[in-house]
Design a protein that fits this description.
Blueprint lengths: L2 E3 L5 E2 H4 L4 E3 L5 E2 L1 E3 L10 E3 L12 H6 L4 E4 L10 E3 L3 H12 L8 E6 L4 H13 L5 E5 L2 E3 L4 E2 L8 H13 L4 E5 L2 H5 L8 E6 L11 E10 L5 H7 L4 E5 L6 E9 L2 E8 L2 E7 L4 H16 L4 H10 L8 E2 L7 E5 L4 H13 L5 E6 L15 H8 L2 E6 L4 H12 L9 E5 H11 L5 E5 L5 H10 L2
Parallel strand pairs: 5-6, 6-7, 7-8, 9-13, 9-14, 10-13, 14-15, 15-16, 16-17, 21-25, 22-23, 22-25, 23-24
Antiparallel strand pairs: 1-5, 2-4, 3-8, 10-11, 11-12, 17-18, 18-19, 20-21
């Protein structure tokens, strides 16, 4: 349901959207805004956001027929039956309207937005854990769920739609939260879901998320990865303060990896003249970067360095993010939601460093074109054949012909596809790989975040 409303005095669109052209009236006073014409009630403002094909007038006749009092859109329809609010970007306007109708909750919270190609979920959990060391109440919105400070609910999207985002932030304010940590995806930035939100902190795990800076409050600050080649360009775009983190290049917050093993790793965290050791259950160089970013946020908020470390170490795992499954077995088992070639390669390369025996990968293929690898980079089959000793391809939702086609797309990139085992049933594939694993081997269950339950059940029941 896409609706935003308020019990406060009705909102003036002329005041909120000074760039808009209002036709048919001097001003529009809004008490409720709807972006789905099927939810329109008499007197509502309808936001014509358009479909995937850019049909900006889609739904306007239907909304008017249901009683919409006015429409906000990018292009005036041929037949104008109600007042219009013409804006350059309807999605941006809708986001700002939703936030205003909800009471602009981001102005009453310290909102930390986290964007980038990878690591948003883990970094969000680490930031929240660090903030919790001060006994403050923290809200968290991301792929693992929506926490409003009291209750958690499943997440349909890592970043909620604009109306849902506004409602959740308002609930955080009502529940006494002081901070909100929000995962911000590329899609949500493209759809202007964050419009109207004032960020206190903008964390960029990789420069592909630099559009997040558009929502940074004038008094806010940014956190960037100095080891990212694009970080320097991002810094030049910023007018306000920024903190950098790094391992290889000089930065305000530095990490030095000391040791890694399958069950934990240790690194030194350096901030100014202080250096402290950090031991984490989660492993991998990317996790060091995630910890450094969270540490930068905590230190910028004045949290003691030792309290920051306690917050980092308190996160023993994040579901489906190189999650270690430990049931006393003599081989490693990890679960990671990695679906792209780059993410999968990073997982396999990390596990290779801590694996004495064979590295096996059970990968869930999908029939979704959006998950196809980019033509300029390595393909899934190439990554699997190069980085894993044994590959098992599987699925649990594709019918026979679709599964064969999806598997064939991956197998086409293998030089020796005869070495790949295909087991259609996902649970059976997981069980087969673990039954084959020998002491010192490692099994990566990739492409789906919830395979840990299958693995634990088999490990506990094995003879």
């Amino acid at each position: 349901m896409q609706v935003c409303s308020t019990v406060a005095p009705r909102l003036s669109l002329r005041a909120l959207l000074p760039e808009a052209e209002i036709l048919g009236t001097d001003d529009l006073r809004v008490g409720r805004c709807v972006s789905d014409w099927r939810e329109v009630e008499a007197g509502d403002l309808f936001a014509a956001l358009g479909g995937d094909r850019g049909q900006h007038g889609a739904g306007i006749p239907e909304a008017v027929a249901r009683g919409a009092a006015a429409v906000v859109c990018q292009k005036a329809p041929a037949d104008r039956d109600v007042p219009l609010c013409l804006v350059p970007n309807a999605r941006d306007a809708y986001g700002r309207i939703c936030q205003a109708l909800a009471g602009n909750p981001s102005q009453q919270l310290k909102v930390i937005g986290i964007a980038g190609a990878n690591g948003k979920t883990t970094t969000s959990c680490l930031v929240a854990s660090v903030l919790l060391q001060t006994n403050c109440r923290v809200g968290l919105l991301g792929s693992l769920g929506y926490l409003d400070g009291q209750a958690i609910e499943p997440a349909a999207h890592p970043t909620p739609p604009a109306d849902r985002l506004a409602a959740l932030l308002a609930r955080m304010v009502a529940n006494g939260c002081s901070h909100a940590v929000v995962e911000v995806t590329r899609r949500s930035l493209a759809e202007s879901r964050m419009a109207g939100v004032r960020l206190d902190v903008a964390c960029i795990t990789a420069a592909r998320g630099d559009r997040l800076f558009d929502y940074l409050a004038p008094e806010g600050f940014a956190v960037l990865n100095a080891d990212d080649p694009a970080a320097a360009a991002c810094l030049r775009k910023l007018d306000g303060p920024a903190l950098t983190v790094g391992i290889d290049r000089q930065a305000e917050i530095m990490g030095t990896l000391l040791e890694q093993c399958p069950s934990e790793q240790m690194f030194l965290l350096t901030a100014g003249s202080e250096t402290v050791p950090v031991r984490t259950r989660m492993i991998g160089t990317p996790h060091v970067y995630h910890c450094l970013t969270a540490a930068a946020v905590g230190l910028a908020y004045g949290i003691d360095l030792l309290a920051v470390v306690r917050g980092l170490e308190a996160v023993e795992y994040v579901p489906g993010r190189l999650e270690r499954i430990e049931c006393g077995q003599p081989f490693g088992v990890f679960v990671d939601a990695a679906r792209t070639p780059a993410a999968l390669a990073a997982c396999l390369q990390m596990l290779r460093k801590v694996t004495a025996g064979r590295l096996m990968c059970v990968f869930k293929v999908r029939g979704d074109r959006r998950l196809s690898p980019r033509p300029t980079g390595p393909r899934l089959g190439q990554v699997l054949e190069t980085a894993a000793d044994q590959t098992v391809l599987t699925s649990d939702h594709l019918p026979g012909e679709d599964l064969r086609q999806a598997v064939a797309q991956v197998l086409d990139d293998f030089r020796q596809p005869q070495n790949v085992r295909v087991i259609a049933d996902r649970a059976a594939a997981v069980r087969w790989a673990m039954a084959e694993a020998q002491p010192g081997d490692c099994v990566l269950l990739a492409g789906q975040a919830d395979d840990g339950q299958i693995a634990r059940q088999w490990l506990y029941q094995r003879d």
